[in-house]
Amino acid sequence: MDTGLRGKVALVSGGSTGIGAAVARKFAEEGAQVALCGRDGARAETMAEEITRTTGTEVRGIAADCTKDEDVRRFVETAIASFGSVDILVNSLAGPKDGGFLELSDQDWIDGLNLKLLGQIRCSRAVLPHMIGRKQGRIVNIIGTHGHQPHSFLVTAGVVNAGLQNFTKALAEIAAPHNVRVNAVNPGPIETVRMQYAMEVQTGQAGISREEARREWEGETLLKRFGTPEEIAAMAVFLASDLASYVTGATINVDGGQTRGT
Fold first, then answer.
1. Which of 43, 85, 191, 206 is at 20 to 30 A from 35, Cα to Cα?
2. Per residue in 58-76, pLDDT tens?
3. Domains plus CATH for the chain?
4. In 3-state terms, what secondary structure has residue 118?
């Protein structure tokens, strides 16, 4: 099935590890040129080289800290200088520090909002003028189910994700007159370093073992297992593709049936 992505240019923020790296790889497999960024420039370059080698598609790794507007703008400008345009942005930034509510400081909250919420806003703000100028574009935000299904030990993640769900809807309305589609993916429990961190926080708060925490997470899903980064990447590629040409303002749960209700 033709996704229409061959020859497109995709930017992936947070693309050096985890879900972001899987997203970058999947776009490259579909024939899109990819620029990915990460705070660790060496890791970003290594990931880009590995994806280029295995897919045969050009991928660039760029050092950028998405808590800094100047880094975000440099990432976008470098990608456009390399590939000539930008058609797609996928935001896949790390989640915030979590823990017991009474132990979280103001700075913990500020840092979490600055990285994931404002980071995705910064990236979207940097690419949108280019997309408006070309009268086409696709933005996909990787968010998470905590935005509508909170856990007490992941309270900062829940607040940040709820804000991103609202932002996605609003940005879709802003961008639609310019033929720019904006959607989001809500991963459930996925086999990533971030998921390992979430289970560590849970074990500390609930006084249970890592194995018990994992069983609880798996038990929340209908499929009784963790998902993979590649399963999230497949949805991101679909939403950015021509196959989803009538989809905008949507937030799709890819969570093994974890979410109950709407």
1. 191
2. 999 999 999 999 999 999 9
3. 9-249 (3.40.50.720)
4. helix
